[in-house]
């Protein structure tokens, strides 16, 4: 059977894990609800050079190719890199943080967790994966 492609412009949000130099995971979000490109880094770094430019190009290319909208308008879209998000205080929890950023943002929840919550999040993630269910 042929796989169906989702028209991304019909989605609320698209979550993109982004690896920096094979050492750190961050999260990019294409937020169609708020017409903005977002970047979440648990070490509070700046977005990589060209990240937002590449996300814009990706949305335009997808709209042209899969939605028959060659001139998809992104002129009103903004770029958002919040500084008041939870921060990791070690060198190994970035994966947990981006999973929880995506989890909370997908439910439109405030990012109100802290580094202290990561042991619980890790345990819950293991349980969800072993039971083959994610909530």
Report on the structure:
With 135 residues, this protein is α+β, with helices and mostly antiparallel strands. Helix content is 31%, strand content 18%. The chain has three helices and four strands. It has a four-stranded mixed sheet with strand order 1-2-3-4, sandwiched between helices. α1 links the parallel β3 and β4.
The proportion of strand residues reads 15-25%
Average pLDDT, all residues? 93
The low-confidence parts are none
Helix content: 25-40%
Tell me which oligomeric state these chains represent.
single chain
| Shape label | globular
Sheet with the most strands: spatial strand order? 1-2-3-4
Strand segment count:
4
Biggest beta-sheet profile: 4 strands, mixed
**H and E string:** EEEHEHH
- Helix and strand composition category: alpha+beta
Radius of gyration: 16 Å
Number of helices: 3
- How far from one another are the termini? 29 Å
What's the SSE blueprint?
Elements: E1 13-20, E2 24-31, E3 36-40, H1 51-66, E4 78-80, H2 94-106, H3 118-130
Parallel strand pairs: 3-4
Antiparallel strand pairs: 1-2, 2-3
């Amino acid at each position: 059977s042929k796989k169906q492609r989702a028209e991304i412009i019909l989605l609320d949000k698209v979550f993109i894990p982004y690896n920096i130099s094979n050492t750190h995971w961050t999260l990019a979000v294409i937020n169609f609800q708020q017409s903005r490109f977002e970047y979440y880094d648990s070490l509070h770094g700046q977005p990589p050079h060209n990240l937002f430019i590449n996300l814009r190009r990706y949305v335009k290319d997808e709209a042209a190719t899969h939605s028959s909208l060659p001139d998809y308008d992104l002129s009103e879209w903004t770029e958002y890199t919040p500084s008041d998000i939870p921060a990791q205080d070690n060198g190994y929890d970035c994966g947990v943080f981006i999973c929880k950023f995506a989890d909370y943002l997908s439910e439109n929840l405030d990012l109100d967790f802290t580094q202290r919550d990561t042991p619980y999040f890790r345990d819950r993630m293991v349980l969800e994966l072993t039971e083959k269910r994610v909530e």
